[in-house]
Amino acid sequence: MIHVLLCDDHAVVRRGIRDTLAEAPDIQVSGEAGGYCELRELLRTTPCDVLLLDLSMPGRSGLEVLASLRETHSGVRVLVLSMYPEDQYALRCLKAGARGYANKAGDPVELITAVRTLMQGRKYLTPEVAQMLADSLAQPEPEAPHAALSARELQTLLKIASGRRLSDIAAELMLSPKTVSVYRARVLEKLHLSNNAELTVYAIRNQLV
Fold first, then answer.
1. What pTM was estimated for this model as a whole?
2. Do both 123 and 159 map to the same domain?
3. Any idea which residues bear 4-aspartylphosphate here (predicted)?
4. Residue in 45, 56, 26, 18 with CA at minimum distance from that of residue 174
5. Where in the sequence is the domain holding 190, given as residue range(s)?
6. At residue 207, what are phi and psi to the nearest 5 degrees?
7. Most buried in the list 50, 84, 107, 188, measured by CB within 10 Å?
8. d(CA 81, CA 85)
9. Pairing of the two strands 50-54 and 27-33
10. Of 138, 157, 181, which residue is a domain's last?
11. Are residue 119 and residue 158 in the same domain, yes or no?
């Protein structure tokens, strides 16, 4: 039996994933978490072979959780689930320790295949990600400026570009407005931009939103 944990801050999403995995007789969802604190406690008490991890959650981002898991639970195979474009996040997640990356908009049945693939010790990549990796190896391109952003800085950029106010971002990420302002300032400096309007234009031009 493959023991799976789900970590996503949306209960409806977790329910959909659980119902999908329930169709596989060799997969059992052993527990669910709405954030990193719950996940950390689950990992102490619940068997886990494969973790399905949402990339965007309040508090610690999925990339930050990946970094922590690599240090504390390196044996857990992590499949990242995200609505973000594969070409912007898949490589980041794989470098951070994920064993696979799947888009939430994809075929739900593919989750069963992904879980089994990770359990076999292999990485799971969608055809889109596999093609992207092949293209990058064949014709390496100069790294985009936003590739130098930290996980939290990139998260801040995306939320600003989506029209969120700093106060809203602070509430969503469970941070102080001052901390979010610091992240915004770092993003502006690293991307050589001046204001939120330029950040939004940058995000659109680079297909980040």
1. 0.68
2. no
3. 54
4. 56
5. 145-205
6. 55, 40
7. 50
8. 11
9. unpaired
10. 138
11. no
Residue 112 is classified by DSSP as H
DSSP output for 152-172: HHHHHHHHHHTT--HHHHHHH
Residue 154's CATH number: 1.10.10.10
Shared domain check, 200 and 127: no
Task: Give, for 16, the enclosing helix (H) or strand (E).
Answer: helix 11-21
The pLDDT tens digits along the chain (209 residues) read 999 999 998 899 999 999 999 999 999 999 999 988 889 899 999 999 999 998 877 666 777 788 778 778 878 999 998 877 666 678 778 878 899 988 888 888 889 999 999 999 999 988 877 777 777 666 655 677 888 888 788 888 888 988 888 998 888 778 899 999 999 999 999 999 999 988 888 888 887 76
- How far apart are the C-alpha atoms of 25 and 42, rounded to whole Å? 23
Cα separation, 66 vs 32, whole angstroms: 17
Sheet-wide strand order for 2-7 = 27-33, 2-7, 50-54, 77-82, 100-103, 124-125
Judgement on whether residues 84 and 161 belong to the same structural domain of the protein: no
Residues 167 and 91 in one domain: no
Kindly state whether residues 117 and 160 are assigned to the same domain.
Answer: no
Query: Any idea what DSSP says for residue 145?
Result: G
